[in-house]
Amino acid sequence: MNSLPSVAIVGRQNVGKSTLLNRLTGKRTAITEDLPGTTRDRLHVPMNHAGRDFILVDTGGMENLPQEAIARSVNDQVRAAMKEAAVIVFLVDAQSGLAPLDHEIADEIRRAGKPVVVAVNKADNPRLALHGAEFHALGFGEPMPISAYHGRGVEDLLDRIFELLPEPEAAVVEKPGLRIAIAGRANVGKSSLLNALTGEERTIVSPIPGTTRDSIDTAIDTPQGSVVLIDTAGIRRRGRVEPGVEEYSVIRSLNAIDRADIVLVVLDAIEPATSQDTHIAGYARDQGRGLILVVNKIDLLENKDMTEFDRNMAARFKFIPYAQRLYLSARTGDGIDRVIPAAFDIQAQRSHRIPTPELNSLVRQALAKHSPPSAGGKLLKVLYATQVGVCPPEIVFFVNDPKLVHFSFQRFLENRLREVFGFSGTPIKFTFKSRGE
């Protein structure tokens, strides 16, 4: 993804940048709300038009002399997007007209020195489309009236972008990267961890909970291989989620876990693990994702002895004893170098396939040491076992009566499998079927 040209959509707040991105991609990728400042970080979305692949980049609305730290960070994110872009779409508002801030943003765009298309949004009818003439004053040539909401003029805009894109380089077939979602409660340091892993300020970091709203995909190359990091919004308990922007953010965070291979559940070292932490980890387990419990902010601990914290973790996360634990500080970088190798190791465990003879040999040995359960004088018999899937590993046991399988017996089999074959950091899915199924 990094090798593709990018097209940055920039402009002041509430001119419809996210609505345009959703219209161009044909799906609700970015959160849209009739509130200034809804988008904050850069959102990268792959696109194809007329056979050309490129990356669309949604950005936050720029402000003039912002006073708040988040607003200043948004401006920095927009400048970074313009610096990386092959083409800039300067989005303005036909309904509110040419504003002084539009001239200031135009100066920023000129400094970037990239090809520019001025798109006059909210030109929902011919009368409003005529208002686009005043945007000639920005000095970027003929403005293009569009309506992102209704789709008017959007195809013409795509054609214009296509004309300005650089000639494609020779195609390079790349394997999709390992997808790692960074999930957790608000303000545990997820965006700081993303920035530490990438080595640059890809997302805005702030002590204010809820700073990240979209799920942000960032592709990086590592010594272990290609990785796509997915930063997510902080997940709160369902009853505490506010409708609107925060509700959409939580939905995107859960969707990010759904499309990840590995989930980093980020915890705060200065707070005991909470029920919300276990809820997030439980969701990742139920989706069959690899799991790493990442304890962040260890630099803030006065006592570096993690014995008590480990006991709390073991008690809170006893339902996923296989999950790996990493202690680190995203702020200082301590322990950061262990995250990506651990994720690749877990992915290898998730992809491991046990040969059927070895699996059945292990089952026979286990049954010789542990009598299978019985009920009403009927004894459970395991006739045959085979692994039918990976990522996560899935094993089917053919038995005389699946109703005789007790959860304690299933746990016994799982423990034996992990002792012999590992499967560290990944759930294992068991299915029990009768002979005829």
Automatic annotation (TrEMBL):
PROSITE patterns: G_ENGA (PS51712). InterPro entries: AAA+_ATPase, G_ENGA, GTP-bd, GTPase_Der, KH_dom-like, KH_dom-like_a/b, P-loop_NTPase, Small_GTP-bd. Gene3D superfamilies: 3.30.300.20, P-loop containing nucleotide triphosphate hydrolases. It holds the Pfam family KH_dom-like. GTP 2 binds at residues 184-191, 231-235, 296-299. The keyword Calcium does not apply. SUPFAM superfamilies: P-loop containing nucleoside triphosphate hydrolases (SSF52540). GTP 1 binds at residues 11-18, 58-62, 121-124. It comes from the Bacteria. One of its GO terms (molecular function) is ribosome binding. Keywords: GTP-binding, Nucleotide-binding, Repeat, Ribosome biogenesis. Residues 5-169, 178-351 form the EngA-type G domain. GO terms for biological process: ribosome biogenesis. Associates with the 50S ribosomal subunit. GTPase that plays an essential role in the late steps of ribosome biogenesis. Belongs to the TRAFAC class TrmE-Era-EngA-EngB-Septin-like GTPase superfamily. EngA (Der) GTPase family. NCBIfam families: GTPase_EngA (TIGR03594), small_GTP (TIGR00231). This is GTPase Der. It comes from Dehalogenimonas alkenigignens.
